[in-house]
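User: Can you predict the 3D structure for this chain?
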Amino acid sequence: MVIEQSRPLAFFDLETTGLDLLNDRIIQIAIIKQFPDGSQEILEHLINPFIESNEEAFEIHRISSEELKDAPPFSELANEIHAFLDDADWVGYNLLRFDIPMLVEAFHRENMCISLDRKIIDAFRIFKIKESRTLRKAMQFYCDETFEAHSAMADTIATRKVLLSQVQHYDDMANSVESLDDEFTPAYYKNDFDWSGFLNCEDDRVVFLRGPYKGKMLGEIFKQDPDYIKKILNYTISSKAKDYIRKILQ
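Assistant: Here is the predicted structure, written as structure tokens:
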């Protein structure tokens, strides 16, 4: 079975210096761009983060600082990566909680925005809802393959295999990009203002999506509870949202 798609589908994965979405950096990106006619294009880069990977991250990706010292910084690759991804729907493994926020933050530091107004499929969410396991176990469960490698391209290839196997495995699961996006991707993840789903901005009005002031406008709460507005600067929310809050506080 193949995935029904009406436009390019970009399978991608990142390797990073750590798991901190605001302070860690991307060191590798791999993208397999699959077109409706079945053809593919590949983009893969090592990226110099100018900071060291923490021990836990290094044990996973095994990419040394020596390997990265001559790699270009993200600033030199941003336009190429943006153009490669921008016309496509996206697929990844845990990309909603990690890869997308990390990528959005990287573009934000370059004063660039990449829209989340597209179809997004997270094979991890499908697996979590259906079976609840890791990518390694997903490969074993769906593809009957042992999987230990952990590089951006290896994970991207594995994710593509898992998704194709998932749509074959479940009789009640559609195989179109539109249906998979509708069923498994919550709308609050497609939030260009704040990838954490805590705040949203519509028509220049910022609204709380969760928390004690859910449904209330940020400006209204600033008057009622300014200490709370200061407190959320310590939350794990997007840099874009934090910049907006800082402007209000000033």
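Residues 199-249 form one domain. The chain has eleven helices and seven strands.
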